Amino acid sequence: ALATTRSLELILDALPQTFHQLSVLVQLEYGEREPLLWFSLLFSCLSIGYVGVVLEFDMETDLNYRKLFARVHGYIPNNSWRRKVAVAAGIMCWIIGFLAARMMAMAVLGIGDAGMFGIWVGAELVLFMLARAAVEGSFRFYQAGLDSVPASLFTNVLMCLFATQGVFLPFGRFPGLYGPSLLVPWAACLLALNPAMLLFGLSLEGSSQIEFTEVRLLWTMGGATAVALAGAAMMAAAMNPSHRQSFFGRLCLKQYVAELWETRTYAPVGSGIDASRAHLLKFSRHYWPRNDQVRDWLEPNWDAWVVAPPQWFTPRFVKRIISAAPPEVLPLTVLRELADKYWEEPQKFGREKPESEAGGTTSANSMRMQGSIRRLGSQKSSMSSCRWGRQVEDTSREELVRMEVERRASKVFARAKQLWIWMVALAFSYVDLVTTVLVGLQYLDMGTAQGTSGAHVTFAMLGLSLGVQALFAHLSGQGALSTLVAVCGGKPLWDTYHTMFDKPTQGVLTAAAALTITRFMQVVMDSLPQAAAQTFLVAQLDSDDQSWAMVASIVGCIVSIAYLVATTELDADKSLGFRTNFPMVHGYIPSLSAVQEALVLLGILLFVGGILGAKLIALATLAGASAWVAVAWCSAEASALFVLRFFAEGRIWKFHFQGASGLMPTLLMHACIYLGMLAAPFPFLRFPGYCGPLPYSASIIYNLAINPAMVYSGFYLGGNRVVLDTQHVWMSLAIGSGVAVLGMVMMGGVMNAAHRQTFYKPRSLRTLIDTLWEERKLTYMGDETMAVGLDPSRANLIAGFTSDYWVSVNKLRAWLANWDAWEADQPVWFTMKKLDFQNTVVQYAPAEALPRTLLLKILAKAKDSEGNERAAPDATTDLLVAKVEAYRKDTSARERAGRFAKAVLAIRLYIVAIVISYVDLAGDVLVTLTLLQSEITKQNGYVTMGLTSFAQVVQAIISLAMGQGGVAAFAALVGAKPLLDTYNVLSKRPLTCGSKEDHQRAFIATRAEEVALQSLPQGFYQCLVLLQMAQAGDTSSWVQWVSVGGAALSVAFIVTDTDCGLDTGSTFRLDYPLIYGYTPADKRSAWWVLLGTFGFIGGTVVSKWVAIATLATASGSSAAVWLATECVVLLVLRQVVESSWRFHLHGLEAAVPSALVHLMFYIVSVAAPFPILRFPGYLGPSLYCASVCYQTIASPLMLLVAFSMEG
Question: Rounded to 10 degrees, what is the CA torsion of 361, 363, 367, 373?
């Protein structure tokens, strides 16, 4: 990893910089070539050479490499430091000389003609790849995981650039890189071509810009080449003689691996020839030994390794063999196990399983399902037994190999198809995003009020979409990084990556489910509103103001939405989880026929695109006439759909997801469902609990029928606002509706017949759950395993849906009566963390359905208001039920009161955080912009900007030093650290790692940092600028005065609020009662204390700003000496009082962090003495009191000294 990082650093940073510097230098005239430019170029070359030497020594002196590949690695001598230094000097000279000669030739050719430069480098790349393929027998890279065609092409380009640009390191002679066959010839070829490249570049038209003469360039190149050759000779003379042959001769990687296969006995893990061979199989399978050699090693030993696994026989090794090894070399045991796992019957070898009448699943899904069931029922490795007994045992090896070949080919085809679908969907997502941004910028460029309004609407909807995606990512437990990625617009890419490469995600959602929801939210919250708004805005523009980007954005939105709906539906309906858990709903897309599947997808595409296009036309026409009528119309439709869903679900209005059934989440989800049904009717919305079959079909018919009425109403109310004429509108509406109907017919005609009824036949979610409760015996669990039986199926239903949709109390009571047996047996589903079944039953199950054991467990820790036990163990069940119901009511009331108090606290803390984060920061930015507008104060503007940037950077460094992570550091850099810390303190799911005490400590530290690093320095500097402007007779801006006053009030308020929160907090009062607790319990007295603190801090701030600014105006050096002396004296006093000047918190006790913390303490003690500074370890009581008294006396002394000076 270190070698790779250093290599990439050279390729992507050092080499391009050197090339650019040399290109600039040769174009400068003699008088313009400053010594600094030569020194920079020389230092760059020396730096590259040194990094190359370090990289080479790291690889060559590594004992593990020397033992693994003794024939190649080990040319650097260990027994003589003189020879080692000579080798290092030789490598340095070789790299610097080769680099200088190569860069000079490339720079001259690049200046002469950039196109010819690209052709030359491209020709070298092609020649290198052909030569390497001829030597190695394959162009693929040798590391497993990087041997795919795209990855191999990329690594070939990197290797060629690495050598072509000038860093031709000796470790490239390893077979699989350049190899000994290619190393010396390729280097000699490049050195020989350098003069030709240089002369050819000088003959081109652009070479007139080069100020160096041809003779001088050739002599310089010759000298560099001589240095390179001298370095090579020095290296060859000093190296171990036994390894000189590793630099030349023919040795390809496949040949070398075959040689090591027979001779080597060393391995990083384990020992012996078996361990060595296992290590060699980590190379790409394209470089393995012959198939018969691998088979003869695996076949006789595999069963013994399974019974008694060696150290190297890990699950990762087994997985590598099964997935990468050619089927011909697999042991017979493995072939039989794969046949048993992925094929249902021996007579169907090589064939897909036919679909059931209910639509079935794909053969791949069937394979995975059977394999998962068997893994659940087996306690040993899946390689250890065969479940078909005689049928599989009688199958010949050739037949088993053929079956595995067909399975892999089918898997590759399915994977390629899925990757293509995902990549196109991803492309549509970001094309839509980019066009949205471009359209918003075009609206701004119009320079009109209409254009500005359009831009604001466009960007506001985009921000809302990203915010909702980030909020959902956080609430669903996907983690801080996923939330940050969503804010930056990368959530589709994030989820696509995790789904494509089977990467696990945080939270309760699988990667596929997260991707599905992300696409749905992107369509509903971004693409649909954007398409509607842009259609409405473009329709009102004159033809001269309309641009291709605006129209393309609308068309792109329609196509993107339709494609995302179709592909999302494909992923959802063919998902193993959905088809297993809800077979009576999912499974309408055919799996056996690719043609039928494509026709269904095309039908969905036409259906959704037509519905969307027609609805956009209707809405734009109506909204163009009267926006209020359009809003009222859509509101009435949304309300009607809510009522329809209410009755279709058996008079239940809550959303069905556990944890999202409250009023606000339900209304938010209904808004999403309505928007989806309005213009992008995902077929999965027919699932009971979302829209349901009957409301879904009724809504489709209604929307197609109501569109003409909306258009007619729009023309009736004032269609003159719509640019398009009436005929075009009606024609477009008819085309859109016709396309939608055509898509519906195509989709309905080709889908699995058994599932057509799922689009219209009434079925409530409660009815569906009742059916599944009694019938489903195979369940796809949250950890992506299969569970057999009614119990795990019912547990999955209980954990997945809110209690309003559960089965009747009698059914639930009869099933939960097995609780004692479950606690004794501890089945997997009962303790599955991701399912959280036990906690769900305890919190949400009706009390009358709970077993007695669970009732007693709930009441075990529950006490009444007087502290007495709520129920005795021998109480009747009815009494226990009543007690549990009463306890739940009390708990609910306390939680409501707690939420209200927490909301009040949150409002106060967020107001303070917003004041700190944005009001104060915005004031600094406005002052900066104001100062930059004038040539006189431009320098002051840069200083103000520098102070702001410095404060953010230091906060980020402190965040990293305190272990708060990258998210906190990023938030600090963008000025959002106070908001982040406030959220972490209040939330049960903080965005950064750490305990509650850690977040509280970070919250306090951030406020102190904002005061010490931003508010105080900025306020002081603005006072200084105001005094200087007054002295020079310049007119100050009101923005500057507001900034100074706001900074003073902000500092006083922050200090008062922070110290009050700390002193009144129960944690600090309990942990440190000698320090915390000075604020009285009486509210009136406490308010007087707060008012006194506010006045004390505010007065101190203003007095110190005035005093220091006046002294600095009179003499800046005197002010600097005064403040530096105070800072040093305070450091000495802290050393005397605490016996150490280092900070006491773990992670900040090092010298540099302690110095930064002390600087912050000094700044705060000068102008904003937090009472918390009296805590021992900060300043301590004695130093705090002495500092306050001294600073009070020092302010008038500063003024006297300032006025006594000549300035």
Answer: 20
Is the CB of residue 669 less than 8 Å from the CB of residue 642? no
Q: Tokens 């923005």 correspond to what residue?
A: 1039
Closest CA to 106 of 92, 95, 117, 116: 117
* Largest interatomic CA distance in the chain: 109
Question: 268-280: per-residue pLDDT in tens?
Answer: 888 899 999 999 9
Alpha-carbon span 807 to 849, nearest angstrom:
11
Cut 0.70: pTM above it: no
Answer for the pair 58, 3: CB distance below 8 angstroms, yes or no: yes
The DSSP line for 617-633 is HHHHHHHHH-HHHHHHH
- 299-334 confidence digits (pLDDT tens): 999 999 999 999 999 988 988 888 888 999 999 888
Surface-to-core class of residue 81, CB atoms within 10 Å of its CB (0-12 exposed, 13-18 middle, 19+ buried): exposed
The pair of structure tokens assigned to 1024 is: 């200084």
pLDDT of residue 540: 63
Q: Using 50, 70 and 90 to split pLDDT, how confident is the model at 1098? A: confident
Residue 117 DSSP SS3 = helix
pLDDT of residue 969 exceeding 90: no
SS3 state of residue 174: coil
Q: What whole-number distance in Å separates Cα of residue 570 and Cα of residue 568?
A: 5
Report CA dihedral (1147, 1153, 1155, 1158) to the nearest 10 degrees: -70
User: 3-class secondary structure for 375-402?
Assistant: HHHCCCCCCCCCCCCHHHHCCCHHHHHH
Alpha-carbon span 466 to 1034, nearest angstrom:
46
φ/ψ of residue 1078, rounded to 5:
-80, -20
Q: How many CB atoms lie within 10 A of CB 665?
A: 15
Query: Pick from 189, 242, 235: which is nearest to 49 by CA?
Result: 235
Q: Do you know the residue count of the chain? A: 1207
- Three-state SS for 832? coil
Bridge partners, residue 869, by sequence:
863
- Top-confidence residue, 352 or 920: 920
Provide the 10 A C-beta neighbour count for residue 526. Answer: 25
DSSP annotation string for 1152-1189: HHHHHHHHHHHHHHHH---GGGGSTTTT-HHHHHHHHH
Residue 1177, amino acid? G
CA pair distance 372, 784, nearest whole angstrom: 8
C-alpha–C-alpha distance, residues 404 and 333, integer Å: 13
Q: Assess contact for 452 and 443: CB atoms under 8 A.
A: yes
- Write down the H helix ranges in 203-267: 214-238, 253-263
Phi and psi, residue 704, nearest 5°: -65, -35
Residue position matching structure tokens 């020839």 = 273
Tokens of 25: 């230098």
Q: How far apart are CA 74 and CA 67, in angstroms?
A: 9
Query: What tokens does 965 get?
Result: 């992570």
Q: Is the separation of the CB atoms in 641 and 674 below 8 Å?
A: yes
The residue type of 1035 is T
Phi, psi of 811 (to 5 degrees): -65, -40
Residues with Cβ within 8 Å of 20's Cβ and at least 6 positions away in sequence, in order, are none
Q: What is the rounded CA–CA span in Å between residue 65 and residue 204?
A: 48
DSSP letter string, 874-894 = T--HHHHHHHHHHHHHHHHHH
Each residue of 635-661: b (16+ CB within 10 Å) or e? eebbeebbebbeebbeebbbbbbbebb
User: pLDDT for 637-675, tens place per residue?
Assistant: 999 999 999 999 989 988 888 767 788 888 888 888 998
> Alpha-carbon distance 732 to 729, whole Å?
5
pLDDT higher than 90, residue 408: no
Which of 175, 371, 354 minimizes the C-alpha distance to 259? 175
pLDDT band at residue 388 using 50, 70 and 90 as cut-offs: very low
The secondary structure element, H or E, covering residue 856 is: helix 852-860
